[in-house]
Amino acid sequence: MKTKITELLEIEYPIIQGAMAWVSDGELASAVSQAGGGGTIAAAGRDAAWVKEQIRTAKENTNKPFGVNIMLMADNCDEIVETVCEEGIGYATLSAGNPIPYFEKLQKSNITVIPVVPNLRLAKKVVQKGADAIIVEGMEAGGHIGNLTTMALMTQVIPEIDVPVIAAGGFADGRGLAAALVMGAAGIQMGTRFYASKECNAHIKAKQKIVESTDKDTVVTGLIHGHPVRGIRNKMSDKYLKLESEGASDSELEELAVGSSRTAPQDGDIEWGFVQAGQSLSAIKELKSCEEIIQKIIREAKEALDI
Fold it and tell me: 249 exposed, middle or buried (CB, 10 Å; 0-12, 13-18, 19+)?
């Protein structure tokens, strides 16, 4: 299935694995890439040595292209950029900050630059400054979210942009891929579906929580304070939302939530950690291999598109 993004990234299928902090490592990224998609290592919360190790792990497992997501607000962002340039990767997705200052350095290292953008204005700005492609991520996604839906972003951004657009937020099956392609997207990014994969090294309790959850089980914390994060409801989120509604201070809320993105996938604490996941949970019924996930999605998309 060829699109502008498969040609740009030299991958077989227009499916990118979303970068999930404390979840997406070199083993998951390489499994997705080996299966024909674009696997992505998440650098958020990690040091440069870990990122280097994961890049090398991915290279040992596959000779196909993969990428690294760089969280631009991280204190060690410059060090991570230096590392990916030295190690050599297929592409970099850039999120949570201004990506433009990093375009030249990454592109000189033959790394395809793909910023994540939440609206049309920023999409136009990064494309004007030389982005090779963009990801538009709707609020249906897990983790940190914006305030526009995936459909609204596709409707408004894709006709205005002349580089490949990857749609993200709420995708979990082949009908979603087909819909995005019909809308003019060059592909989709999925995180939660690959979280619940056999190759994902996240704690089994966190992965099983995704499988057991339904469409109504995610909540958004931090919305009142302007830092919205979507995940699966638990004791921590209930307490957070209660405190938030009662006017708790930023420091009090931070004390409750700090480390929660790590403790769920790393330690298996699914009540006081936060399983960051998107809204399309009912479509995820069991843990599958990355190969099975991608092949099922491609088969469903072809059936929906009648090709």
Answer: exposed
pLDDT of residue 63: 96
What is the pairing mode between strands 218-221 and 229-232?
antiparallel
- The answer to whether the CB of 220 falls within 8 A of the CB of 229 is yes
What local confidence, expressed as pLDDT, does residue 225 receive? 78
Model pLDDT, residue 226:
81
- Look at the alpha carbons of 112, 114, 14, 230 in this order and tell me if their dihedral is positive or negative: positive
Q: Do 276 and 19 touch, CB atoms closer than 8 A?
A: no
How far apart, in whole angstroms, are the C-alpha atoms of residue 253 and residue 251?
Answer: 5
Residue 92 tokens read as: 């970099």
Number of helices and strands in the chain (H, E): 14, 11
Low-confidence ranges of the chain (pLDDT < 70): none
Using CA atoms, how far apart are residues 144 and 162, in angstroms rounded to an integer? 26
- Quick: pLDDT tens for 28-56: 999 999 999 999 999 998 999 999 999 99
